[in-house]
Amino acid sequence: xxLLACCLSLFALLINTVHANTEKVIFLAPTTQHTSGLSEYxxxxxxxxxxxxIRRSLPVAFPTDQHPEGVESWYWLKDLRQRQRHxxxxxxxxxxPTDFRLDVFEHKDIAEQxxxxxxxxxxxxxxxxxxEAATSAKxxxxxxxxxQAAADFYTTNKTLMQKPPPVDVDIILDPYLDNxxxxxxxxxxxxxxxxxxGSWYVSGYIWSLLKPVAGTEAKSHED
Length: 223
Ligand SMILES: *[C@@H]1O[C@H](CO)[C@@H](O)[C@H](O)[C@H]1NC(C)=O
What we know:
5-stranded antiparallel β-sheet; binds 2-acetamido-2-deoxy-beta-D-glucopyranose; alpha+beta; 2 domains; 4-stranded mixed β-sheet; 6 helices
């Protein structure tokens, strides 16, 4: 079982290096449930294992002294399963070179670290106009995802250098199966396994077709 797990995670690594423009964070879901603080977070976009993917146009900026990592945006990762491993990926087009950094924080981290609280509050205020949802009093396991987006290109076009255009991204929350394998990679894994098994049989079949020919050739050499 250990060997299998090892092979699978190596395999997962291989697959992930194929996406050039993917950044991700892997984490274990926390064990503490919260109800407090939920209402402040209602303005954020939500990712859950059942609604794991959103597409957004993220604002970016070139790094400055004040914001060395660019523009920050926040998302709410909800309905997580206690201690389960998850990853969040962000994917974007190679034509929009950007440095993304992903971090997840617990509710208590936010409360304790002033800079985080300030950034989150600012972001929530910028979102307020668009959403105002009802408060749920459910106990939940959740995390807050911070995405930092810094433009990473150089052009002689002054307009673009002063105001880099927003970057289209997919943000995907992916729970791991058994804490070893990202669920969304299952179809790819199944495809590769089918391909491997299929080619084993096909090569056997082709070999059985070739064998008589090879046999007679060898015979004619002997003669
Ligand atoms: C600079 O980029 C902007 C936005 O893409 C474009 O509208 C403008 O024509 C460009 N200017 C030059 C001088 O290429």
